[in-house]
Amino acid sequence: MGRPREFDVDEALETAMELFWRKGYEGTSLTDLTEGMGITKPSLYGVFGNKEGLFLKALERYERTKMAFFHKALEEPRARIVAEKILHGFADAQTADKDPSGCMGINGALACSEAAAEIQKCLIENRHRGERELGRRFERAAAEGDLPPGHEPHDLARYIMTISQGTAIQAASGADRQALYRVIDMALQFWPELSPQDS
Amino acid sequence: MGRPREFDVDEALETAMELFWRKGYEGTSLTDLTEGMGITKPSLYGVFGNKEGLFLKALERYERTKMAFFHKALEEPRARIVAEKILHGFADAQTADKDPSGCMGINGALACSEAAAEIQKCLIENRHRGERELGRRFERAAAEGDLPPGHEPHDLARYIMTISQGTAIQAASGADRQALYRVIDMALQFWPELSPQDS
DNA sequence: GGAATTATATACCGATCGGTACAAAAAATC
DNA sequence: GATTTTTTGTACCGATCGGTATATAATTCC
Fold first, then answer.
1. Distance, CA of B40 to C1' of D10, in Å
2. Distance (Å, rounded) from C-alpha A178 to C-alpha A189?
3. CB B184 within 8 A of CB B167
4. Contact assessment for residue B37 and residue B16, using Cβ atoms and an 8 Å cutoff
5. Buried b vs exposed e over B135-148: b needs ≥16 C-beta within 10 Å?
6. Minimal C-alpha gap between A44 and chain B (Å)
7. Is A163 on the interface with B (CB under 8 A)?
8. Is B119 on the interface with A (CB under 8 A)?
9. Does residue B4 reach within 7 angstroms of strand D, measured from its CB?
10. pLDDT interval class at B64 (50, 70, 90)
11. Per the CB < 8 Å rule, is A173 touching B124?
12. pTM for this one?
């Protein structure tokens, strides 16, 4: 009952995600948002609560769609393939033609005022969570004898995430996908490729 | 002649640098600046022009002091040592006890509103310049047979800068220096260490 | 066709943004 | 000591910030 909504919530959220991704949380004004989403401020507040709530919902959407490759990669049977898929997945997301460059989880609020401290904390925790999950996957790999010798699983996880965060900055600075791929190839050089009889 | 200035310009600039480093260009308000520097707005505008001018002067100071290791590292005779010193130099600067975490050149304006577009462009160009200089140093190394085989000098430079930008995000997310050092060790693993008779 | 409910549009809120006008204060010059 | 020059403190500027009060429009329930 009541007057029906005149806009598509999912579509509006997609636009908000793109704006926050490109301009960051504080760099995106309510005017940017309402004009981009094609709705008025009362509509925005009615559906999403406030700016912070909208950002968090946009981040959730980002994780569910653009970062879906991550959890998929964790299911690969060989650790080296896990690492490769994660690195390429990040590079792809950071350089997709129709999307902003770089990573929303970094662009969102890397350095900001006190007003955005809660968002910043949330994004940091987000990064930690991903790194922790990858670390646990590599722990399993270690138990299976599936890691290059001489490395702690969680150090390897931090290494992979550091490369991905580095390529996020590179992408935000204009680097194209092929350049990032070459970086990734170098970063994985110490990690033995799978020989055919391994699989 | 005229009334003497009541504050130390260099000291004030140091404070502005720290603020911009920690909160970014747009995240730092004029109130933050004047309160932190202990001066009034007319004094700030009299000496530094405006907020943008102040940021650029603070960035200049940052490059001259905190990034001094970079050009020093380029003068090392062996490319592997150049890479090592640059990576450790960045990690040190990103995790210094008394300074903000991460890198001012990235924290300053990674994603921002249109109002900061000029600053953002300037910081991107800054990153490109460093990468270009390192690439040229590695070109020299290639001519001297001082590179690991199978790598383009400028790809190697991008690789080193990507790692450093990755550790900048890690530092901004709370990683300590030792953790970054372990990442750097892994990143350099494919690059042959110098044996004693090489030097 | 009301009554109730929800979404819309307009117009507004106090606070803060970067930046400045103006006059008093503190020094050097004559 | 008067004049000139520069810095300082105060008080203010228009614009924009995130957020909301209010009334009207559009639907369902009865």
1. 10
2. 17
3. yes
4. yes
5. bebbbebbeeebbe
6. 20
7. yes
8. no
9. yes
10. very high
11. yes
12. 0.96
Chain A with chain B: Cβ pairs closer than 8 A: 149
Closest nucleotide to the alpha carbon of A34, via C1': D18
Report all structural domains of chain B as residue ranges with CATH numbers, in order of start.
9-62 (1.10.10.60), 67-189 (1.10.357.10)
CA distances from B69 to A48, B22, B55, B66, B135 (A): 47, 21, 21, 7, 17
Query: pLDDT tens across A132-149, in order?
Result: 999 999 999 999 999 998
Which residues neighbour B146 within 8 Å (Cβ) at sequence distance 6 or greater? B78, B79, B80
Q: Which nucleotide is nearest to B39 (CA to C1')?
A: D8
Compute and round to an integer the Cα radius of gyration of chain A.
19
| Cβ B171 vs Cβ B129: under 8 Å | no
Which DSSP state fits B101? S
Residue pair B172/A164 in contact (Cβ under 8 Å)? The answer is no
Nearest to B23 among A111, A162, A189 (CB): A111
**pLDDT tens by residue, A150-169:** 999 999 999 999 999 999 99
> In angstroms, rounded to a whole number, what is the distance separating the alpha carbons of residues B140 and B160?
16
